[in-house]
Amino acid sequence: MNGKVEIVGVGIDRVTMAEAVDRLREYLQEERCSMVFTPNSEILIEAVKDPELEEILNKGQLVVPDGIGVVIASRFYGMPLQERVAGFDLMNRLFEVGDGLGCRIFMLGGKEGIAEEAAEKLKLRFPGLVVAGTRNGYFDAGDEAGIVEEINRSGADILLAALGAPKQEKFIFRHRDTLCVKIAMGVGGSFDVLAGRVKRAPEFYQKAGLEWFYRLIKEPRRIGRMMRLPKFILLSFYDAKTK
Predict the structure, then answer these.
(1) Where are the domains of the chain?
(2) Which uninterrupted H or E stretch holds 135?
(3) What are the start-end ranges of the H helices in the chain?
(4) Counting CB atoms within 10 angstroms of each CB, which of 115, 124, 146, 212 has the fewest?
(5) What are phi and psi of 3, to 5 degrees?
(6) What pLDDT, in 10s, does the model give residues 66-90?
């Protein structure tokens, strides 16, 4: 399945997980920085309010549906997505590809020490991967040029930016022409999961598209954020009907 479906102004690639992984393999053979974004319902709502973020997402080389809400919304536009392509799972498939190719990765983001913990766990799972560098996610705009220089000096093929949305997308886009990596991917809070600090939802919830519900059970204070899902469904339904 090819092409994109535009959901509330953002083009989402109509790819399966397998097709997305094939794209990543291709990007690793190219001499440019390919931007990989994984928007969920929350990020798409933010993009409606933030034209800069909308533009950035639309310029990504690969933009996949991270949340089940995005898959549901695609049906309103008459171009249903085949499946959810979860960002965390896509990242792990990228590790598998990179492990076989001996790729070098740079891990940017998270609290102090989290990227390093995640890197140690990663080395055990994927011995063929080289963690070329790590850095926490606490920095100001004035630090960015130095960070880009550090990433480039490391010789990394892949940049994982775990800065949270929309900071990670804006960082990648801002420096896309100076970053020497082949893939720059926004990965949200993935380092906490890789490091073992946060437990991901059991497989049942993942397959049923109910990870959001599992997180709500574990963290009831997230109810405010979770209410964005029905808001997004209504917004996308209205948007599709007016086109």
Answers:
(1) 4-241
(2) strand 130-135
(3) 17-27, 41-49, 51-58, 68-76, 87-101, 114-125, 144-154, 167-174, 190-194, 203-207, 211-218, 223-226, 228-241
(4) 124
(5) 85, -170
(6) 989 999 999 999 999 999 999 999 9
